Recover the amino acids of this structure.
């Protein structure tokens, strides 16, 4: 099962994607986690990505797409994946579609975590506090929400046109969202 999760900061995408990965035995492919791991390794790529992330900007498409293509070619992703954190704009969505087509893969569902900005902001700040994430300051979160509305929201319609978009009410508890998500995945699986 090949899944994509979409939604703004603090919508619970990562939490639910990890749960899906565990439930279905497929990897959670989080671009944010991959970028943070590269940053922690201290490589040139990691330093470059770290500076971009700390400013609240998006990592360039060509770097991200190459990283995702490499990750999806790994043996553990052959039975499926949950892609989290990419695409972030229409050009990236089209590039992802083309890349998946080139490697003979397609998305089975696009899970759209819908949540009001104020709830997402509150959750993201709490996560930053709990996890000690330096890239989640109020200013950076606000900038990411701004980018989300201007650049990422338009791809929701791109994926709605495929008939595979699954809207979720993400402003509820983790278990309530999981229940709605599980019911939706039973239809896809």
């Amino acid at each position: 099962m090949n899944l994509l999760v979409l939604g703004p900061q603090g919508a619970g995408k990562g939490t639910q994607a990890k749960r899906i990965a565990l439930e279905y035995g497929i990897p959670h492919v989080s671009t944010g986690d991959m970028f943070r791991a590269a940053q922690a390794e201290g490589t040139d790529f990691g330093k470059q990505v770290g500076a971009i992330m700390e400013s609240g900007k998006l990592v360039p498409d060509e770097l991200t797409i190459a990283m995702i293509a490499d990750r999806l070619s790994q043996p553990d992703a052959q039975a499926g994946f949950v892609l989290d954190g990419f695409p972030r704009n229409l050009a990236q969505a089209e590039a992802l579609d083309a890349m998946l087509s080139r490697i003979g893969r397609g998305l089975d569902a696009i899970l759209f975590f819908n949540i009001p900005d104020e709830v997402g902001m509150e959750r993201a700040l709490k996560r930053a506090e709990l996890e000690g994430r330096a890239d989640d300051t109020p200013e950076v979160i606000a900038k990411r929400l701004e980018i989300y509305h201007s650049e990422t929201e338009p791809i929701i319609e791109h994926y709605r046109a495929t008939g595979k978009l699954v809207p979720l009410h993400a402003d509820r508890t983790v278990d309530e969202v999981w229940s709605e998500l599980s019911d939706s995945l039973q239809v896809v699986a």
In short: The chain has a mean pLDDT of 91.
